[in-house]
Amino acid sequence: MKGSSALLLALLPCLGACGKRQHGPPGPVMIRDITLPSTNVVEILSLSPLPSRPAQPTNQDADNPVAAQLGQELFFDTRFSANGEVSCATCHQPANEWTDGKALSVGLEQVKRNAPSLWNVAYQRWYFWDGRKDSLWSQALGPIEHPSEMGGSRLRAYRLIRDTPAYLKAYESVFGMLPALSGGTDVVDARPVPDNPQDAMHKAWVSFPALDRTAVDRVFSHIGNAIEAFQRQLISTDAPFDHFVAALRAGDADGMGKLSDAVLRGMKIFTGKGQCTLCHGGPNFTDNEFHNIGLNRGGRSLDQGRFPAIEQVRKDPFNGKGIHSDNPSMEANKSLHYVAPKDNNLGEFKTPSLRNVTGTGPYMHDGRFHSLREVVVFYSTLPDTPAVGHREESLQPLHLDAREIDDLVAFLKSLTGRPLEADLLKPPEP
Amino acid sequence: MVALILTPVGGCRVEPEPTLDSATTASGDYTVRYEFEPDPIPRNEHFVMHVLLSRKDGLEFAPGLSVVVDADMPAHGHGINTQPEVTMVSPGVYKVEGLLFHMGGQWELFVDVMEDGIPDRATIPIKM
Prior knowledge:
The complex is a heterodimer. By secondary structure, chain A is an all-alpha fold. Chain A has a domain at 65-235: Orthogonal Bundle (Cytochrome Bc1 Complex, Chain D, domain 2), CATH 1.10.760.10. Helix content of chain A is 34%, strand content 2%. Chain A has a two-stranded antiparallel ribbon with strand order 1-2. In chain A, strands 3-4 form a two-stranded antiparallel ribbon. Chain A is globular, with a radius of gyration of 23 Å. The model of chain A is unreliable at 1-22 (pLDDT under 50). Chain B has a single domain, classed as Immunoglobulin-like, CATH 2.60.40.1930. Chain B is built from no helices and 9 strands. The two termini of chain B are 22 Å apart. The relative contact order of chain B is 0.26. Residues 1-13 of chain B have low confidence and may be disordered.
Protein backbone atom coordinates (compact mmCIF):
# COMPACT_ATOMS: atom_id res chain seq x y z
CA MET A 1 0.00 0.00 0.00
CA LYS A 2 1.20 3.46 -0.77
CA GLY A 3 -0.02 6.98 -0.28
CA SER A 4 -0.86 9.04 2.71
CA SER A 5 -4.28 7.48 3.08
CA ALA A 6 -2.57 4.28 4.08
CA LEU A 7 -0.26 6.01 6.48
CA LEU A 8 -1.12 5.69 10.11
CA LEU A 9 0.76 8.21 12.16
CA ALA A 10 1.19 7.42 15.79
CA LEU A 11 3.50 10.26 16.63
CA LEU A 12 2.92 10.84 20.26
CA PRO A 13 4.62 13.52 22.36
CA CYS A 14 5.89 16.68 20.78
CA LEU A 15 9.06 15.99 18.81
CA GLY A 16 10.47 19.44 18.94
CA ALA A 17 9.07 21.03 15.84
CA CYS A 18 6.24 22.57 17.84
CA GLY A 19 8.77 24.73 19.64
CA LYS A 20 7.79 23.47 23.03
CA ARG A 21 9.82 21.53 25.49
CA GLN A 22 9.76 17.79 24.96
CA HIS A 23 8.17 15.69 27.65
CA GLY A 24 9.39 12.13 27.70
CA PRO A 25 10.53 10.04 24.80
CA PRO A 26 8.69 10.14 21.49
CA GLY A 27 6.21 7.42 20.80
CA PRO A 28 6.32 4.78 18.08
CA VAL A 29 5.53 5.65 14.50
CA MET A 30 3.66 3.50 12.01
CA ILE A 31 3.99 4.14 8.32
CA ARG A 32 1.88 1.92 6.12
CA ASP A 33 2.57 -1.48 7.70
CA ILE A 34 6.01 -0.63 9.09
CA THR A 35 6.29 0.28 12.75
CA LEU A 36 9.24 2.22 14.07
CA PRO A 37 9.35 1.63 17.83
CA SER A 38 10.03 4.49 20.20
CA THR A 39 13.67 3.48 20.66
CA ASN A 40 14.19 3.67 16.89
CA VAL A 41 12.48 7.04 16.71
CA VAL A 42 14.84 8.43 19.35
CA GLU A 43 17.82 7.28 17.28
CA ILE A 44 16.33 8.54 14.02
CA LEU A 45 15.79 11.99 15.47
CA SER A 46 19.43 12.09 16.60
CA LEU A 47 20.63 11.61 13.00
CA SER A 48 19.21 14.77 11.44
CA PRO A 49 19.41 17.61 10.70
CA LEU A 50 23.06 18.17 10.04
CA PRO A 51 24.01 21.28 12.05
CA SER A 52 26.06 24.17 10.73
CA ARG A 53 29.69 23.26 10.21
CA PRO A 54 31.67 23.51 13.44
CA ALA A 55 34.05 26.35 14.16
CA GLN A 56 37.70 25.78 13.32
CA PRO A 57 39.71 27.78 15.86
CA THR A 58 43.16 26.71 14.64
CA ASN A 59 42.52 28.29 11.23
CA GLN A 60 41.18 31.81 11.50
CA ASP A 61 40.54 31.89 7.74
CA ALA A 62 38.60 28.62 7.65
CA ASP A 63 35.45 30.44 6.54
CA ASN A 64 37.09 33.28 4.63
CA PRO A 65 35.69 33.23 1.05
CA VAL A 66 38.88 34.66 -0.45
CA ALA A 67 40.89 31.93 1.24
CA ALA A 68 38.37 29.38 -0.01
CA GLN A 69 38.71 30.65 -3.58
CA LEU A 70 42.49 30.37 -3.35
CA GLY A 71 42.15 26.95 -1.78
CA GLN A 72 39.93 25.82 -4.62
CA GLU A 73 42.55 26.82 -7.17
CA LEU A 74 45.28 25.06 -5.20
CA PHE A 75 43.11 21.97 -4.82
CA PHE A 76 43.01 21.47 -8.58
CA ASP A 77 46.60 22.57 -9.30
CA THR A 78 48.90 19.76 -10.44
CA ARG A 79 52.03 21.87 -10.10
CA PHE A 80 52.47 20.85 -6.47
CA SER A 81 53.51 17.42 -7.67
CA ALA A 82 56.92 16.26 -8.74
CA ASN A 83 55.69 15.19 -12.18
CA GLY A 84 53.25 18.07 -12.64
CA GLU A 85 50.34 15.70 -13.08
CA VAL A 86 48.90 15.05 -9.61
CA SER A 87 46.66 17.36 -7.59
CA CYS A 88 44.34 16.91 -4.62
CA ALA A 89 41.60 16.34 -7.18
CA THR A 90 43.42 13.36 -8.64
CA CYS A 91 42.31 11.23 -5.71
CA HIS A 92 39.38 13.40 -4.61
CA GLN A 93 37.45 13.83 -7.83
CA PRO A 94 34.29 15.96 -7.76
CA ALA A 95 32.57 13.69 -10.25
CA ASN A 96 33.36 10.67 -8.11
CA GLU A 97 31.89 11.90 -4.81
CA TRP A 98 35.29 13.38 -3.96
CA THR A 99 37.07 10.05 -4.14
CA ASP A 100 38.70 8.23 -7.05
CA GLY A 101 36.74 5.03 -7.42
CA LYS A 102 39.85 2.95 -6.86
CA ALA A 103 40.42 0.43 -4.08
CA LEU A 104 43.86 1.90 -3.42
CA SER A 105 44.59 5.37 -4.65
CA VAL A 106 47.26 6.23 -7.17
CA GLY A 107 49.29 9.39 -7.06
CA LEU A 108 52.85 9.16 -8.34
CA GLU A 109 52.38 5.50 -7.46
CA GLN A 110 49.82 3.35 -5.70
CA VAL A 111 49.42 4.09 -2.01
CA LYS A 112 48.43 1.75 0.82
CA ARG A 113 44.96 3.04 1.53
CA ASN A 114 41.70 4.04 -0.10
CA ALA A 115 41.03 7.72 -0.73
CA PRO A 116 38.27 8.78 1.66
CA SER A 117 35.54 11.03 0.35
CA LEU A 118 35.66 14.70 1.26
CA TRP A 119 31.95 15.02 1.91
CA ASN A 120 31.42 16.79 5.23
CA VAL A 121 35.11 16.80 6.13
CA ALA A 122 34.53 20.01 8.07
CA TYR A 123 32.72 17.94 10.69
CA GLN A 124 35.54 15.52 11.40
CA ARG A 125 37.70 15.43 14.49
CA TRP A 126 40.66 13.55 13.00
CA TYR A 127 41.97 13.19 9.44
CA PHE A 128 43.31 10.29 7.37
CA TRP A 129 42.03 6.80 8.04
CA ASP A 130 44.29 6.58 11.09
CA GLY A 131 43.71 10.10 12.38
CA ARG A 132 47.34 11.16 12.21
CA LYS A 133 46.23 14.73 11.60
CA ASP A 134 44.01 16.83 13.83
CA SER A 135 42.86 19.44 11.33
CA LEU A 136 41.90 19.65 7.71
CA TRP A 137 44.53 22.31 7.03
CA SER A 138 47.26 20.12 8.43
CA GLN A 139 45.94 17.09 6.57
CA ALA A 140 46.12 18.94 3.27
CA LEU A 141 49.88 19.30 3.65
CA GLY A 142 50.55 15.58 3.92
CA PRO A 143 49.86 14.43 0.35
CA ILE A 144 51.85 17.32 -1.13
CA GLU A 145 55.04 15.93 0.37
CA HIS A 146 54.23 12.22 0.42
CA PRO A 147 56.64 10.46 -1.96
CA SER A 148 53.86 8.22 -3.35
CA GLU A 149 51.22 10.92 -3.69
CA MET A 150 52.46 14.24 -5.08
CA GLY A 151 56.12 13.84 -4.20
CA GLY A 152 56.52 17.60 -3.91
CA SER A 153 57.79 19.73 -1.10
CA ARG A 154 56.94 22.76 0.98
CA LEU A 155 59.57 24.77 -0.87
CA ARG A 156 57.97 23.89 -4.20
CA ALA A 157 54.61 24.93 -2.72
CA TYR A 158 56.10 28.21 -1.50
CA ARG A 159 57.55 28.91 -4.92
CA LEU A 160 54.22 28.16 -6.58
CA ILE A 161 52.56 30.87 -4.50
CA ARG A 162 55.41 33.29 -5.04
CA ASP A 163 55.68 32.76 -8.79
CA THR A 164 51.97 32.69 -9.69
CA PRO A 165 50.71 36.30 -9.68
CA ALA A 166 47.08 35.42 -9.03
CA TYR A 167 48.05 33.16 -6.14
CA LEU A 168 50.38 35.75 -4.68
CA LYS A 169 47.70 38.42 -4.82
CA ALA A 170 45.12 36.20 -3.14
CA TYR A 171 47.62 34.92 -0.62
CA GLU A 172 48.71 38.37 0.47
CA SER A 173 45.15 39.62 0.72
CA VAL A 174 44.38 36.86 3.20
CA PHE A 175 47.61 36.09 5.00
CA GLY A 176 49.69 39.24 4.58
CA MET A 177 52.93 39.74 2.75
CA LEU A 178 54.68 36.65 1.52
CA PRO A 179 58.02 36.43 3.32
CA ALA A 180 61.08 36.54 1.08
CA LEU A 181 63.84 33.99 1.39
CA SER A 182 67.45 34.93 1.87
CA GLY A 183 68.86 32.27 -0.40
CA GLY A 184 68.33 29.05 -2.27
CA THR A 185 66.84 30.71 -5.31
CA ASP A 186 67.78 27.83 -7.61
CA VAL A 187 66.46 25.09 -5.34
CA VAL A 188 63.06 23.66 -6.36
CA ASP A 189 62.37 21.04 -3.72
CA ALA A 190 63.28 21.04 -0.06
CA ARG A 191 61.58 19.50 2.93
CA PRO A 192 62.58 17.77 6.14
CA VAL A 193 62.98 14.00 5.89
CA PRO A 194 64.04 13.24 9.45
CA ASP A 195 64.07 9.49 8.88
CA ASN A 196 66.56 9.81 6.05
CA PRO A 197 69.06 12.64 6.48
CA GLN A 198 70.76 11.60 3.23
CA ASP A 199 67.64 12.36 1.20
CA ALA A 200 68.38 15.09 -1.33
CA MET A 201 65.33 17.12 -0.28
CA HIS A 202 66.38 16.91 3.36
CA LYS A 203 69.90 18.04 2.57
CA ALA A 204 68.49 20.96 0.64
CA TRP A 205 66.16 21.79 3.51
CA VAL A 206 68.82 21.92 6.19
CA SER A 207 70.99 24.08 3.93
CA PHE A 208 68.48 26.91 4.32
CA PRO A 209 68.85 29.32 7.21
CA ALA A 210 66.47 28.67 10.08
CA LEU A 211 64.55 31.86 9.40
CA ASP A 212 63.92 30.78 5.81
CA ARG A 213 62.73 27.37 6.96
CA THR A 214 60.33 28.99 9.40
CA ALA A 215 59.02 31.28 6.67
CA VAL A 216 58.46 28.40 4.27
CA ASP A 217 56.71 26.41 6.97
CA ARG A 218 54.44 29.35 7.67
CA VAL A 219 53.49 29.75 4.02
CA PHE A 220 53.00 25.99 3.77
CA SER A 221 50.58 26.09 6.70
CA HIS A 222 48.70 28.94 5.02
CA ILE A 223 48.34 26.81 1.89
CA GLY A 224 46.70 24.23 4.11
CA ASN A 225 44.50 26.94 5.62
CA ALA A 226 43.26 27.92 2.16
CA ILE A 227 42.62 24.36 1.02
CA GLU A 228 40.69 23.73 4.23
CA ALA A 229 38.55 26.81 3.58
CA PHE A 230 37.60 25.34 0.21
CA GLN A 231 36.95 21.85 1.50
CA ARG A 232 34.72 23.09 4.30
CA GLN A 233 32.16 23.95 1.64
CA LEU A 234 31.75 20.33 0.55
CA ILE A 235 28.67 19.65 2.61
CA SER A 236 26.15 16.91 2.01
CA THR A 237 22.75 17.53 3.52
CA ASP A 238 19.07 17.67 2.53
CA ALA A 239 19.00 13.98 1.75
CA PRO A 240 15.68 12.14 1.49
CA PHE A 241 16.37 10.87 4.99
CA ASP A 242 16.65 14.46 6.27
CA HIS A 243 13.31 15.26 4.68
CA PHE A 244 11.83 12.24 6.42
CA VAL A 245 13.13 13.38 9.81
CA ALA A 246 11.86 16.91 9.21
CA ALA A 247 8.45 15.43 8.43
CA LEU A 248 8.69 13.26 11.53
CA ARG A 249 9.36 16.28 13.71
CA ALA A 250 6.51 18.17 12.09
CA GLY A 251 4.06 15.30 12.26
CA ASP A 252 3.76 15.45 8.48
CA ALA A 253 2.35 12.10 7.45
CA ASP A 254 2.60 12.76 3.73
CA GLY A 255 6.23 13.76 4.06
CA MET A 256 7.11 10.66 6.01
CA GLY A 257 5.36 8.45 3.51
CA LYS A 258 7.62 9.49 0.66
CA LEU A 259 10.27 6.95 1.54
CA SER A 260 9.84 3.47 0.14
CA ASP A 261 9.07 0.49 2.30
CA ALA A 262 12.56 -0.85 1.70
CA VAL A 263 14.15 2.38 2.96
CA LEU A 264 11.90 2.42 6.02
CA ARG A 265 12.67 -1.19 6.82
CA GLY A 266 16.37 -0.48 6.37
CA MET A 267 16.07 2.54 8.65
CA LYS A 268 14.49 0.32 11.27
CA ILE A 269 17.39 -2.14 11.08
CA PHE A 270 19.97 0.64 11.05
CA THR A 271 18.57 2.26 14.18
CA GLY A 272 17.51 -0.97 15.84
CA LYS A 273 18.84 -4.49 15.75
CA GLY A 274 21.73 -3.58 13.49
CA GLN A 275 23.07 -1.20 16.16
CA CYS A 276 24.71 0.71 13.34
CA THR A 277 24.32 4.00 15.21
CA LEU A 278 26.73 2.85 17.91
CA CYS A 279 29.52 3.96 15.58
CA HIS A 280 27.64 5.67 12.74
CA GLY A 281 25.69 7.89 15.13
CA GLY A 282 24.99 11.60 15.07
CA PRO A 283 23.97 13.83 12.16
CA ASN A 284 27.11 13.04 10.17
CA PHE A 285 26.65 9.31 10.71
CA THR A 286 29.99 8.88 12.46
CA ASP A 287 31.31 9.04 15.99
CA ASN A 288 34.46 10.66 14.60
CA GLU A 289 36.53 8.03 16.34
CA PHE A 290 38.18 4.71 15.50
CA HIS A 291 37.23 1.05 15.66
CA ASN A 292 38.69 -2.32 14.88
CA ILE A 293 35.93 -4.05 12.96
CA GLY A 294 37.89 -7.25 12.58
CA LEU A 295 39.02 -7.12 8.98
CA ASN A 296 41.74 -9.57 8.03
CA ARG A 297 44.83 -8.49 6.14
CA GLY A 298 43.15 -8.99 2.83
CA GLY A 299 46.41 -10.16 1.30
CA ARG A 300 48.11 -6.87 2.05
CA SER A 301 50.86 -5.77 4.41
CA LEU A 302 49.94 -5.33 8.05
CA ASP A 303 48.34 -1.98 8.80
CA GLN A 304 48.24 -1.06 12.49
CA GLY A 305 45.86 1.83 11.92
CA ARG A 306 45.19 4.21 14.77
CA PHE A 307 47.73 3.09 17.37
CA PRO A 308 50.97 4.51 15.89
CA ALA A 309 49.11 7.51 14.49
CA ILE A 310 48.42 8.89 17.96
CA GLU A 311 52.08 9.61 18.61
CA GLN A 312 52.38 11.04 15.10
CA VAL A 313 49.62 13.56 15.61
CA ARG A 314 50.91 14.53 19.03
CA LYS A 315 54.37 15.24 17.65
CA ASP A 316 53.25 16.82 14.37
CA PRO A 317 54.73 20.33 14.07
CA PHE A 318 51.61 21.29 12.12
CA ASN A 319 49.14 20.17 14.77
CA GLY A 320 46.69 22.47 16.48
CA LYS A 321 49.00 23.19 19.40
CA GLY A 322 51.98 24.04 17.19
CA ILE A 323 53.42 27.39 16.22
CA HIS A 324 51.48 27.49 12.96
CA SER A 325 48.12 27.10 14.63
CA ASP A 326 45.97 30.20 14.90
CA ASN A 327 44.86 29.06 18.34
CA PRO A 328 47.21 26.66 20.10
CA SER A 329 45.38 26.84 23.42
CA MET A 330 44.35 23.72 25.23
CA GLU A 331 40.74 24.83 25.11
CA ALA A 332 40.85 24.95 21.30
CA ASN A 333 42.61 21.60 21.06
CA LYS A 334 40.97 19.38 23.65
CA SER A 335 40.89 16.31 21.44
CA LEU A 336 44.60 16.56 20.75
CA HIS A 337 45.47 17.48 24.32
CA TYR A 338 43.77 14.50 25.91
CA VAL A 339 44.29 11.80 23.26
CA ALA A 340 46.39 8.87 24.40
CA PRO A 341 47.30 5.54 22.83
CA LYS A 342 45.45 2.56 24.23
CA ASP A 343 45.97 -1.12 23.44
CA ASN A 344 42.60 -1.28 21.77
CA ASN A 345 43.72 1.29 19.20
CA LEU A 346 45.65 -1.42 17.35
CA GLY A 347 43.99 -2.12 14.04
CA GLU A 348 41.44 0.64 14.44
CA PHE A 349 40.40 2.87 11.56
CA LYS A 350 38.22 5.94 11.49
CA THR A 351 34.47 5.58 11.25
CA PRO A 352 33.56 7.16 7.90
CA SER A 353 30.51 9.33 7.50
CA LEU A 354 27.71 7.60 5.63
CA ARG A 355 26.33 10.72 4.00
CA ASN A 356 26.57 10.28 0.22
CA VAL A 357 28.06 6.87 0.85
CA THR A 358 26.40 5.37 -2.23
CA GLY A 359 28.99 6.71 -4.64
CA THR A 360 32.09 6.65 -2.48
CA GLY A 361 33.15 3.05 -3.00
CA PRO A 362 35.20 0.96 -2.93
CA TYR A 363 34.80 0.75 0.83
CA MET A 364 36.96 0.27 3.93
CA HIS A 365 40.43 1.68 4.51
CA ASP A 366 41.86 -0.59 1.86
CA GLY A 367 38.94 -0.52 -0.53
CA ARG A 368 38.35 -4.25 -0.30
CA PHE A 369 34.59 -4.06 -0.79
CA HIS A 370 33.33 -2.77 -4.10
CA SER A 371 29.66 -2.42 -3.21
CA LEU A 372 27.58 -1.42 -0.23
CA ARG A 373 25.99 -4.82 -0.38
CA GLU A 374 29.37 -6.44 0.24
CA VAL A 375 29.83 -4.15 3.25
CA VAL A 376 26.48 -5.08 4.73
CA VAL A 377 27.13 -8.77 4.11
CA PHE A 378 30.41 -8.39 5.98
CA TYR A 379 28.66 -6.96 9.02
CA SER A 380 26.02 -9.64 8.74
CA THR A 381 28.54 -12.46 8.84
CA LEU A 382 31.79 -11.06 10.33
CA PRO A 383 33.82 -13.81 8.71
CA ASP A 384 37.34 -12.54 9.35
CA THR A 385 39.96 -12.97 12.04
CA PRO A 386 41.32 -9.48 12.75
CA ALA A 387 44.65 -8.73 11.15
CA VAL A 388 45.84 -7.14 14.38
CA GLY A 389 44.33 -6.27 17.73
CA HIS A 390 40.86 -7.41 18.59
CA ARG A 391 37.50 -6.72 17.06
CA GLU A 392 35.11 -4.26 18.63
CA GLU A 393 33.22 -6.72 20.82
CA SER A 394 29.85 -5.07 20.35
CA LEU A 395 30.03 -6.27 16.76
CA GLN A 396 28.21 -9.55 16.45
CA PRO A 397 27.03 -11.19 13.23
CA LEU A 398 23.64 -9.76 12.35
CA HIS A 399 22.49 -12.80 10.37
CA LEU A 400 20.46 -10.66 8.00
CA ASP A 401 18.44 -12.32 5.29
CA ALA A 402 18.65 -11.22 1.67
CA ARG A 403 15.77 -8.77 1.92
CA GLU A 404 17.17 -7.19 5.07
CA ILE A 405 20.50 -6.69 3.35
CA ASP A 406 18.77 -5.03 0.42
CA ASP A 407 16.77 -2.88 2.82
CA LEU A 408 19.87 -1.63 4.60
CA VAL A 409 21.45 -0.77 1.28
CA ALA A 410 18.27 1.04 0.27
CA PHE A 411 18.40 3.05 3.48
CA LEU A 412 22.04 3.99 2.89
CA LYS A 413 21.06 5.26 -0.54
CA SER A 414 18.58 7.61 1.13
CA LEU A 415 21.52 9.49 2.66
CA THR A 416 22.54 11.11 -0.62
CA GLY A 417 22.20 14.86 -0.28
CA ARG A 418 21.51 17.59 -2.75
CA PRO A 419 24.28 18.32 -5.26
CA LEU A 420 26.79 21.10 -4.70
CA GLU A 421 26.81 24.27 -6.72
CA ALA A 422 28.50 23.56 -10.03
CA ASP A 423 31.20 26.17 -9.48
CA LEU A 424 32.62 24.16 -6.59
CA LEU A 425 33.27 21.18 -8.84
CA LYS A 426 36.06 22.65 -10.92
CA PRO A 427 38.87 25.17 -10.70
CA PRO A 428 37.46 28.68 -10.24
CA GLU A 429 37.12 30.86 -13.30
CA PRO A 430 39.99 33.32 -13.60
CA MET B 1 28.82 26.11 36.95
CA VAL B 2 27.83 23.12 38.95
CA ALA B 3 25.92 23.17 42.18
CA LEU B 4 28.63 21.29 43.97
CA ILE B 5 29.96 23.38 46.83
CA LEU B 6 33.46 22.10 47.00
CA THR B 7 34.53 23.19 50.43
CA PRO B 8 37.92 21.91 51.46
CA VAL B 9 37.20 18.97 53.69
CA GLY B 10 40.54 17.66 54.81
CA GLY B 11 39.27 14.13 54.98
CA CYS B 12 36.65 14.80 57.61
CA ARG B 13 33.55 16.84 58.26
CA VAL B 14 32.28 16.30 54.78
CA GLU B 15 29.13 18.22 54.09
CA PRO B 16 28.09 16.97 50.69
CA GLU B 17 25.28 18.35 48.68
CA PRO B 18 22.39 16.00 49.26
CA THR B 19 21.61 15.74 45.56
CA LEU B 20 24.98 14.40 44.51
CA ASP B 21 25.24 10.87 43.20
CA SER B 22 27.73 8.67 44.96
CA ALA B 23 29.63 5.42 44.75
CA THR B 24 31.74 3.47 47.21
CA THR B 25 35.17 2.07 46.54
CA ALA B 26 35.68 -1.69 46.52
CA SER B 27 37.18 -1.68 50.01
CA GLY B 28 34.31 0.32 51.36
CA ASP B 29 36.75 2.86 52.77
CA TYR B 30 35.90 5.78 50.49
CA THR B 31 32.77 7.47 49.29
CA VAL B 32 32.98 9.18 45.91
CA ARG B 33 30.37 11.87 45.39
CA TYR B 34 30.30 13.35 41.96
CA GLU B 35 28.67 15.66 39.50
CA PHE B 36 29.05 16.10 35.76
CA GLU B 37 29.32 19.29 33.79
CA PRO B 38 27.27 19.49 31.71
CA ASP B 39 24.64 17.18 33.11
CA PRO B 40 23.42 15.01 31.46
CA ILE B 41 26.67 14.01 29.82
CA PRO B 42 26.57 14.90 26.11
CA ARG B 43 27.37 12.11 23.70
CA ASN B 44 30.68 12.50 21.91
CA GLU B 45 31.60 15.79 23.58
CA HIS B 46 34.09 16.57 26.28
CA PHE B 47 32.69 16.86 29.77
CA VAL B 48 34.00 17.56 33.24
CA MET B 49 33.52 15.53 36.39
CA HIS B 50 33.69 17.07 39.85
CA VAL B 51 34.57 14.64 42.62
CA LEU B 52 34.16 15.00 46.35
CA LEU B 53 36.04 12.22 48.13
CA SER B 54 35.55 11.28 51.76
CA ARG B 55 36.64 8.53 54.08
CA LYS B 56 33.92 6.50 55.70
CA ASP B 57 35.78 6.57 59.00
CA GLY B 58 36.21 10.32 58.90
CA LEU B 59 39.98 10.14 59.25
CA GLU B 60 42.45 12.30 57.37
CA PHE B 61 43.56 11.24 53.89
CA ALA B 62 46.83 9.37 53.72
CA PRO B 63 49.77 11.49 52.55
CA GLY B 64 50.27 11.21 48.82
CA LEU B 65 46.76 9.97 48.13
CA SER B 66 45.74 10.62 44.56
CA VAL B 67 42.82 9.96 42.25
CA VAL B 68 42.92 8.42 38.78
CA VAL B 69 39.90 8.30 36.47
CA ASP B 70 39.27 6.12 33.44
CA ALA B 71 36.26 4.59 31.70
CA ASP B 72 35.40 1.43 29.86
CA MET B 73 32.66 -0.14 27.77
CA PRO B 74 32.54 -3.70 29.07
CA ALA B 75 30.48 -5.02 26.17
CA HIS B 76 32.76 -3.45 23.58
CA GLY B 77 36.23 -4.38 24.77
CA HIS B 78 37.47 -0.82 24.82
CA GLY B 79 37.22 2.35 26.79
CA ILE B 80 37.64 6.03 26.15
CA ASN B 81 40.21 7.27 23.68
CA THR B 82 41.49 9.96 26.02
CA GLN B 83 43.65 10.17 29.11
CA PRO B 84 41.66 12.21 31.64
CA GLU B 85 43.54 14.68 33.79
CA VAL B 86 42.68 14.95 37.48
CA THR B 87 43.39 18.17 39.33
CA MET B 88 43.16 18.38 43.10
CA VAL B 89 41.26 21.55 43.89
CA SER B 90 41.69 21.02 47.62
CA PRO B 91 42.08 17.91 49.78
CA GLY B 92 39.28 15.57 48.79
CA VAL B 93 38.05 17.78 45.98
CA TYR B 94 39.01 16.93 42.41
CA LYS B 95 38.26 18.19 38.94
CA VAL B 96 38.48 15.65 36.12
CA GLU B 97 38.92 16.91 32.56
CA GLY B 98 39.43 15.10 29.26
CA LEU B 99 36.49 12.74 29.49
CA LEU B 100 34.60 11.95 26.29
CA PHE B 101 32.13 9.13 25.70
CA HIS B 102 32.20 8.76 21.94
CA MET B 103 29.55 6.05 21.69
CA GLY B 104 26.10 5.33 22.98
CA GLY B 105 25.73 2.29 25.22
CA GLN B 106 26.73 1.18 28.68
CA TRP B 107 29.83 2.77 30.14
CA GLU B 108 31.65 2.22 33.42
CA LEU B 109 33.46 5.18 34.89
CA PHE B 110 36.27 4.24 37.25
CA VAL B 111 37.48 6.42 40.10
CA ASP B 112 40.61 4.87 41.55
CA VAL B 113 41.72 6.15 44.92
CA MET B 114 45.45 5.51 44.93
CA GLU B 115 47.24 4.88 48.20
CA ASP B 116 50.88 3.76 47.96
CA GLY B 117 50.26 2.97 44.30
CA ILE B 118 47.40 0.60 45.07
CA PRO B 119 44.02 1.45 43.56
CA ASP B 120 40.79 1.24 45.46
CA ARG B 121 38.16 1.49 42.75
CA ALA B 122 34.71 2.97 42.70
CA THR B 123 32.74 1.97 39.60
CA ILE B 124 30.01 4.22 38.30
CA PRO B 125 27.71 2.75 35.61
CA ILE B 126 26.52 5.25 33.04
CA LYS B 127 24.07 4.58 30.24
CA MET B 128 24.55 6.84 27.25
